[in-house]
Design brief:
The protein is built from two helices and seven strands; from the N terminus they run ββααβββββ. The chain has about 110 residues and is an alpha+beta fold. The model has no long low-confidence stretch (mean pLDDT about 95).
Length: about 110
């Protein structure tokens, strides 16, 4: 990981997701302040999720979930070939509809 990236993690789908320190600050300041200080947890969701779903609206957007009912942490990333970038992350009590493309082996 370089100095600019706060998150740089390989996903189970074989591509790496990155998030710059500057963009993470935008997420925790303007989108989801509840995630301040939780960057390592978001990285864990991307690297070791329980389930990955494809967005119904954009096939290049993937939703990574980790946790269990009633609370999951969701990290949303866009894949572009062998790399990707974090769009957002948020705690949720609902896993969104969409095609399940990967689940953890139990």
């Amino acid at each position: 990981m370089d100095a600019e990236n706060l998150i740089e993690v390989a996903t189970p789908l074989g591509f790496t997701v990155r998030c710059t320190r500057r963009y993470w600050e935008f997420i925790v300041t303007h989108k989801h302040p509840v995630l301040r200080g939780r960057g390592p947890e978001v990285a864990q969701v991307l690297g070791d999720p329980d389930e990955i779903r494809r967005s119904r609206k954009d096939p290049t957007v993937l939703l990574f979930y980790r946790g269990s009912a009633p609370r999951w942490l969701c990290a949303v990333a866009r894949r572009e070939d062998d790399s990707g970038f974090l769009i957002t992350a948020y705690p949720t009590d609902v896993i969104k509809a969409g095609e399940t493309i990967w689940t953890r082996s139990r």
